[in-house]
């Protein structure tokens, strides 16, 4: 049972990574088209303050609740809508946080893009607090996140990307050139390539295998 459970987790992660890869490719194409058609060259996006390495863990733990809370609101202002869209795009570009070490390892090629979508998520929560402070569920979640920050001394844990600010006009891609020098990322994509190659090989083998029929009557 342990072996089957482990294999299931491995193939499950591989499947999610493949799905994330397809989403990234589609998002990349669509985002490039949107920039070409909608961009006016002024870079008039919404500035997003960064968050510290410690704050990342707190926002990541609360991210599903923050996004669900935003999605339940009606008549969001344009800033909140653009922040929500930015989080979606950035999350896709960062492989949905599935690559090991994306959040905790500042040397990960995916840490900077993780900073971006989590900074956007935090900015979205703060925008909701500013514009919908009369709603109890928003106040409760803001208080919870703030308490988690204090408990984890989140503002004191820094990394090399903690001082970087972001903007809704710019999606941050993973640092692909650093993947070969980062063993966990290299192992992840190497294993993914192996699984995809194995699946393709099995598919081709089944297609070319001879079909055996019933033996002729003697």
UniProtKB/TrEMBL annotation:
Signal peptide segment: 1-32
The organism's place on the tree of life at top rank: Bacteria
Transmembrane segments: 186-204
Annotated keywords: Membrane, Signal, Transmembrane, Transmembrane helix
Protein name in the entry: Uncharacterized protein
Species of the source: Labrys neptuniae
Lineage: Bacteria, Pseudomonadati, Pseudomonadota, Alphaproteobacteria, Hyphomicrobiales
